[in-house]
Automatic annotation (TrEMBL):
Keyword Ion transport: no
Keyword Lipid biosynthesis: no
Binding site for ATP: 14, 16-19, 110
Protein's name in the database: Adenylate kinase isoenzyme 6 homolog
UniProt source species: Oidiodendron maius (strain Zn)
Gene Ontology CC annotation, any one: cytoplasm
E.C. numbers: 2.7.4.3
The entry's keywords: ATP-binding, Cytoplasm, Kinase, Nucleotide-binding, Nucleus, Ribosome biogenesis, rRNA processing, Transferase
Known function: Broad-specificity nucleoside monophosphate (NMP) kinase that catalyzes the reversible transfer of the terminal phosphate group between nucleoside triphosphates and monophosphates. Has also ATPase activity. Involved in the late cytoplasmic maturation steps of the 40S ribosomal particles, specifically 18S rRNA maturation. While NMP activity is not required for ribosome maturation, ATPase activity is. Associates transiently with small ribosomal subunit protein uS11. ATP hydrolysis breaks the interaction with uS11.
Family the entry assigns: Belongs to the adenylate kinase family. AK6 subfamily.
Any GO molecular function: ATP binding
Reactions catalysed according to its record: AMP + ATP = 2 ADP; ATP + H2O = ADP + phosphate + H(+)
InterPro entries: Adenyl_kinase_AK6, P-loop_NTPase
């Protein structure tokens, strides 16, 4: 049994995953697991997709590589997909959501190619990652939070911190 929870922060690129994960790692002591960085550092990919400017992840290699660490608990997983992680590893799935205008500005600022920008806007409007989370995990552990403004982000951080405190309390050794 884990004594620290594992959390996934997911959502369309630009929604605020990395910013949320970094802030939470700082305040809670959980470890920020950036799948993007790990895939790159540990070469867990089948090459680089030039058009989409992203690594083609080898999911089997990725899961093998992180399994021993993640099973210990205490990780905040930062990735724009959640369906690959086994249910037994995960205690909370946070799906961040954002309005199109904010997302457009953030992706534009990153110089995303037009096709990729449009695809991500469509994906956000169609709630693709929310649906993926709901299809992959029990509904009680999937939480949808909006990330349009810094005020919303602060309130999200507080909510997740509170959830972590409660989880730790309920999962102390000997807790019923
Ligand atoms: P992701 O990891 O999901 O791609 P980032 O955390 O890198 O997203 O955030 C993308 C950009 O949007 C960054 O410039 C970040 O500062 C900004 N941002 C993220 N969340 C918010 C928010 N809730 N309010 C305002 N700006 C935000
Ligand atoms: Mg990120």
């Amino acid at each position: 049994m884990r004594i620290q929870p594992n959390i996934i922060i997911t959502g369309t690129p630009g929604v605020g995953k990395t910013t949320h994960c970094e802030t939470l790692a700082e305040s809670t002591g959980l470890k920020h697991l950036s799948i993007n960085d790990i895939v790159k550092e540990r070469s867990l990919h089948d090459g680089y997709d030039e058009e989409y400017k992203s690594w083609i992840v080898d999911e089997d290699k990725l899961l093998d590589s992180i399994e021993d660490e993640v099973k210990q608990g205490g990780y905040i997983i930062d990735w724009h997909a959640c369906d690959l992680f086994p249910k037994s590893w995960i205690d909370l799935v946070v799906v961040l959501r954002v309005d199109s205008t904010h997302l457009y500005d953030r992706l534009k600022a990153r110089n995303y190619p037009e096709a990729k920008l449009q695809e991500n806007l469509d994906s956000e409007i169609m709630e693709v990652l929310l649906q993926e989370a709901r299809d992959s995990y029990d509904e009680e552990i999937v939480v949808e939070l909006t990330s349009n403004t810094s005020e919303e982000m602060e309130s999200n951080i507080e909510r997740i911190e509170t959830w972590i405190v409660n989880w730790r309390e309920n999962n102390k050794e000997g807790a019923k």
